[in-house]
């Protein structure tokens, strides 16, 4: 009996660890962070083994039930923090109305002089408006470029000041990241931002509470081709078009976490392919503010806060 429970326990543990290891977090984080997570998972496995030998082996049913409950709680918390579409701790705008035959193009981590101007030229050529979630330090560095994005009629959102993993920061630092970028956007383009995309999409109750206090709507995505990886423009476009559906929020990048020399050449090359493919499927393009204006729960939040959605 002990051997059976032991085998069940380790099978469950391995499945849990593999699930965590290959979920969205490993498609986003850099190599160093992945190594840290692997080490933490190894520590967890060792702890689990000790827990089994000291508790479960002596109190089989109770110990096994306690362990499974603990694993489920951990998995629940991991899902709430790491999954871009998770709404465990609050509402996230990750998809527009399905009845509306439209999608939204969004660009993160800019502006950058190497990529953003080329993207603006392509969008102007097709007469399409997009949404740019900008990093505060990049806006401060390239003020005129941010103004060009705004003057071209595109929407601008807050993407933190330095692009940290917010859930690993203290609450005060999370607030500073959001408020500093808020202030920079107001100073540079003269408008109040009200949409916020947490870096990597990671969020916890503190991020939600600060967003609510500052009257921000948290925006995520539903279509992510992983354009930051070393893949071709054709592959980026193929991934977007294969997954496209009404109400999609497409995530692309015109920068790299606010770095000066971000190379998004393949993303730039993929953009005409994406736009032409989306148009050929009969979709229109909208900005996030335009999509928000059609969302019932967003409108209820706005009414509760007492302010209007700017367009």
List the helices and strands and how they pair.
Layout lengths: L1 H20 L3 H4 L2 H26 L3 H23 L19 E9 L5 H10 L5 E4 L1 H6 L1 H9 L3 E4 L12 H19 L5 E2 L8 H9 L3 E2 L14 H11 L5 E5 L11 H16 L3 E2 L2 H5 L3 H10 L6
Helix pairs in contact: 1-3, 1-4, 3-4, 8-9, 10-11
Structure notes:
With 311 residues, the protein is of the alpha/beta class. It has 2 domains: 2-82; 102-305, TIM Barrel. It is built from 13 helices and 7 strands. Strand 1 (102-110), helix 5 and strand 2 form a beta-alpha-beta unit. Helix 1 (2-21) packs antiparallel against helix 3 (31-56) and helix 1 (2-21) packs parallel to helix 4 (60-82). The N and C termini lie far apart (65 Å). The model has no long low-confidence stretch (mean pLDDT 82).
Brief characterization of the structure:
With 311 residues, the chain is an alpha/beta fold. The chain has helices at 2-21, 25-28, 31-56, 60-82, 116-125, 136-141, 143-151, 171-189, 205-213, 233-243, 265-280, 288-292, 296-305; strands at 102-110, 131-134, 155-158, 195-196, 217-218, 249-253, 284-285.
Descriptive labels:
311 residues, alpha/beta, TIM Barrel, 2 domains, five-stranded parallel sheet, two-stranded parallel sheet, 13 helices, 54% helix, globular
């Amino acid at each position: 009996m002990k051997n059976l429970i032991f085998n069940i326990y380790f099978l469950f543990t391995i499945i849990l660890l593999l699930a965590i290891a290959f979920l969205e977090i490993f498609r986003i984080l850099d190599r160093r962070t992945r190594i840290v997570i692997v080490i933490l998972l190894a520590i967890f496995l060792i702890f689990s083994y000790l827990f089994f030998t000291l508790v479960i082996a002596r109190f089989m049913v109770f110990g096994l039930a306690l362990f499974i409950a603990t694993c489920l709680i951990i998995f629940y918390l991991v899902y709430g923090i790491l999954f871009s579409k998770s709404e465990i701790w609050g509402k996230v705008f990750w998809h527009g109305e399905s009845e509306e035959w439209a999608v939204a193009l969004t660009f993160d981590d800019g502006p950058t002089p190497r990529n953003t101007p080329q993207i603006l030229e392509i969008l102007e050529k097709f007469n399409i408006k997009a949404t740019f979630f900008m990093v505060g330090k990049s806006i401060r560095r390239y003020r005129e470029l941010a103004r060009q994005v705004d003057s071209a009629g595109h929407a601008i959102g807050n993407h933190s000041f330095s692009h940290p993993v917010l859930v690993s920061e203290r609450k005060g630092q999370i607030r500073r990241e959001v408020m500093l970028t808020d202030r920079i956007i107001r100073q540079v383009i003269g408008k109040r931002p009200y949409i916020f995309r947490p870096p990597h999409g990671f969020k916890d109750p503190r991020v939600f509470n600060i967003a609510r206090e500052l009257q921000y709507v948290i925006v995520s995505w539903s279509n992510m081709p992983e354009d930051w990886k070393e893949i071709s423009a054709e592959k980026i476009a193929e991934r977007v078009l294969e997954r496209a559906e009404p109400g999609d929020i497409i995530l692309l990048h015109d920068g790299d976490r606010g770095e000066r020399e971000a190379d998004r050449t393949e993303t730039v090359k993929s953009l005409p392919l994406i736009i032409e493919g989306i148009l050929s499927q009969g979709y229109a393009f909208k900005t996030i503010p335009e999509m928000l204006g059609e969302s019932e729960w967003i409108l209820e939040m706005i009414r509760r806060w007492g302010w209007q959605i700017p367009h």
